Amino acid sequence: MVIANIISYILVLLGALNWGLYGIFDFNLVGWIFQGPRSVGSIILYVIITLAALWLIISPIISGNGLRLKMRDKEEREEALENR
């Protein structure tokens, strides 16, 4: 779950950066990378970013412990290794 949280944060930050660039400079970074804002690649990335944002909303509810980016203690790390 920690890895999913980190990946989701990176994707949501990419989405926020794209919105900031679009709002300030009228430049769509994702659209530029994929040669158009409605290209297949752009749409797929927008959907992935949306799913990452939804994950960040529901993951604290699922875990019951709030959002975590790292394991809290040594026992938790050992437990995660055992569950592999």
Q: Could you characterize what this model shows?
A:
The chain has helices spanning 2-25, 29-33, 40-63, 74-82. It is mainly alpha-helical. Helix 1 crosses helix 3.
How many extended strands? 0
Gyration radius, rounded = 16 Å
Helix percent band = over 70%
Q: How far from one another are the termini?
A: 13 Å
Counted by DSSP, the helix tally is 4
Which stretches are low in confidence, meaning pLDDT under 50 for 5 or more residues running? Answer: none
**Estimated structural class:** mainly alpha
Q: Major β-sheet, in short?
A: none
Mean pLDDT across every amino acid position: 88
H/E series: HHHH
- Oligomer kind: single chain
The percentage of residues in β strands lies in under 5%
Quick description:
74% of the residues lie in helices and 0% in strands. It has helices spanning 2-25, 29-33, 40-63, 74-82.
Observed structural traits:
84 residues
List the helices and strands and how they pair.
Layout lengths: L1 H24 L3 H5 L6 H24 L10 H9 L2
Helix pairs in contact: 1-3
